[in-house]
Amino acid sequence: MSDSDTTLGEIRAFEPARGEADHPHSAIMRFGADKPLQLDAGGVLTPFQIAYQTYGTLNAARSNAILICHALSGDQHVANVHPVTGKPGWWETLVGPGKPIDTDRYFVIGTNVIGGCMGSTGPSSLNPASGKAYGLDLPILTIRDMVRAQAMLVDQLGIEKLLAVVGGSMGGMQVLQWAASYPERVFAAFPIATAARHSAQNIAFHEVGRQAIMADPEWRGGRYLAEGSSPRRGLSVARMAAHITYMSDSSLHRKFGRRLQDRDGHTFSFDADFQVESYLRHQGEAFVDRFDANSYLYMTRAMDYFDLAADYGGVLANAFKATKTRFCLVSFTSDWLFTTADSRNIVHALNAAGAPVSFAEIESDKGHDAFLLDEPEFFAITRGFIDAAARAVGVS
Amino acid sequence: MSDSDTTLGEIRAFEPARGEADHPHSAIMRFGADKPLQLDAGGVLTPFQIAYQTYGTLNAARSNAILICHALSGDQHVANVHPVTGKPGWWETLVGPGKPIDTDRYFVIGTNVIGGCMGSTGPSSLNPASGKAYGLDLPILTIRDMVRAQAMLVDQLGIEKLLAVVGGSMGGMQVLQWAASYPERVFAAFPIATAARHSAQNIAFHEVGRQAIMADPEWRGGRYLAEGSSPRRGLSVARMAAHITYMSDSSLHRKFGRRLQDRDGHTFSFDADFQVESYLRHQGEAFVDRFDANSYLYMTRAMDYFDLAADYGGVLANAFKATKTRFCLVSFTSDWLFTTADSRNIVHALNAAGAPVSFAEIESDKGHDAFLLDEPEFFAITRGFIDAAARAVGVS
To answer: What domains lie within chain B, and their CATH numbers?
Structure first.
C-alpha cells in the first residue's frame, strides 16, 4: 500500500501572487505612510492595503451603503464569480439584483479583511522591511484592527454612515465591533450566527488547526513562501477538522450516513471507504488551492482573542451604551459552534443597553454553515430588516 | 519567533519495545500456528498474542470472571499503576478491592485488544514474514476480530462463561459484540457510553486524526518503526482533535473558560495564551509517549467499521435474538460523541429482542469522558448491576 493510496491526493498550493498588490480582480485601496493602521498589539501597520468589491450604485445622499463582513475563510468576492475557484460568490444567494440585500437598491461593499490572503495586506504580502513575505513577522491582528481598517476604507469611499453592516460568524464579530467602535456610523447592525466572545471549545478547535499547520515541516516557522515550500497537508487537515464543526451531526448523517464509496462493501484499508471521508478530504484539498496557511493562523487567532465585553470593563452592555444603532440577530438551531445561547447573550446586553433589537432563532439542521445556505426564513428576515432600515433612513 | 515557540514542544516517541513480546508488566498468552485468529477482512492472523492483567481470584466454579474491554486509547492496565506513565490504572475508580467492581469478590480480566500497542499483536509487532514491524501490512481489524481473540484468551483461562463483560466507548462496542457473538458465554453485559454503529460525524473526526498522522512525513507510509522515525507531531494533533470530542463545551468552559496562561494579558503571538491551548498541547504530547501511531489508525478504523445491525440483515434486534444475557446500559447527558439517543437505539433493539435490559441516562457535564471519571451515580449503578448478576449466578 503506497502513501498515495491512503493520504490526501495531490494538493496544489495557494499561490502568493494571488494575494499580492497586483491582484487583478478587485479594487485596491492603498494607505501610505500618512495613514498607518493603529494595531491593538501595539504599533502600526504601514503601508497597507485593502482589496474590495462593490455592487450597485452609491446614491447621491451616500445613504444606501451596506458593508458585508466575511467569515474566517471568506473574502471580498461576495456576489461575483470567485477568481480562483470559478464558483459563485459566497453570498450570491443573499446579495445581488432583486436578492434580500438588493444591489439594485443598495451599494454593497465586500472587503478582504486585514490579515487575509485575497489582496488585503496579510502574512503573504511583501514586508517592505525585508523584501520578503511577512510570514509571522506581521503583527497579530484583532477583530478591532480589521474593523479599524474597514472604517478607513469607508472614509476613503466618502461614506460617513453605513446603512447596514452585515456578517456571519467572524463577520458577525466584526459587525458587533463596528457597532461598539463606531455607533454613529452604523444605522443597522446584522450579526448572524456569532458570539461576543469565542468559547473555550472554539479556541480548542482553532488550536488543533494551528498545530496541524505548524506541525507540517513545510510550514518552516511561517517562512514557507520565502523558502518556496507550502504546508498544504497541515492546512488541509486544519480545514477538515474545522469543516466538521461547520456542520451538524444530523446534516452529516443526512448527507452521508454510513454510505460507502464503493457499493461492494468495505475495502478493509485506510482508503476513503465512507463518503464522508472522501468529502472531507476534498474539502481539505480544495481549500489549500485558495487559502494561505499563515492567514489561517491570523484569522483564527483574531477570533480567539475576540471578547468584546473585556474591552468595556467586563460588561457587554457597556459596549453598546446609548447606541442609536438598530440590531437584528439570527442564530440557527443546529449550530453548535455559535449557539443560540451566544446570540441570546448579545441580545440581553443590547436590551440592558436599551438598544432596539430583534432576534430570530431559525430552525435548521444545517449547523453553522446554515448562514451560507439556502434558508428561506433567514432570507425573509434579512430582506425585512434591511428594507425597514432603508425606509427609516429615506432610501428610495 | 522560532518554531519551538509556537509549536508543540519536544515530544518523546512511543517505543516499540514496549509493545513487543517481552512486555515485562503483563501476562502474555501466545497463540501459535495451531490456533490462528480468523479475521473479518479474510484470512488469518498467526501467530498472535494477547497481553492481559488479572485482579482477584477465580473461584472454584469459575463463575466470577468479569472481562473489562478498553476504549480507543486504553489498555489492559485497568487497575494497576501504568508501567509507562506511572499513573493509576484507567479504571481504578471503578475496579479494585471494595470498589463497584470488587476484586475481593470477582476475578477481573483486562486485555489489550488485538491491534493495540501494549503487548498484544498490533502494527508495532514483529511481522514474522518480514522480520520487521508490521506497519500497515497488518490486516485491518474489526471489533469482532478483537472479541474473537478475547474469546480465545478466555478459553485458555478455562472460563466457559463470563459473569459480566463491561466496557465504555470502543469497549462498549466490544461488549455488544460479545453479547451478539457469544450470548451463551455472557451472563451480564454492561455497555457504557457507546453505540451499535459509528456515526458519520464520528467517522469524520476519526478521519481527521488519521489524516493528521498520515500527513506527517515521519509516518513514512506506516514504516516509521522499521525506518527509525516517528510521526509524533501528527499523532499529537490527532489526539488533540479527539480530546475535544471527549469533553463537553460546558466542561471545557468550567475547566478553562477564556483564562489566560499569563495573567498579564494576551501575548499577541501564537504561543499558548489560553489555558485550554496548553492543556490540549499537553494532552497531545503525553499521548505520544505511550501510544503507537499505527495502532491509532487501526483502532479508529475498527470503530468506524462497527455496525452491528449490518451483520444481522440490518436489524439490530436480530443481533440479540433469544438472548439470555441481561443488559444494563448507561449514557451521560453531555456526551455528544456517543449520545443518549445511541444508547436508546440499543435499548429499543434489546426490547424488541425480548432481552432483559435496564438503562440509565446520567446527568453529567463531563462529556464522553464521564465514564472514566468520578460519577457516584454511575458507580452505584455499576455495583448494583454486577452484584445482582453475581447473586443470580450464585457467586458468594
So the answer is: 3-13+202-300 (1.10.1740.110), 16-197+307-393 (3.40.50.1820)
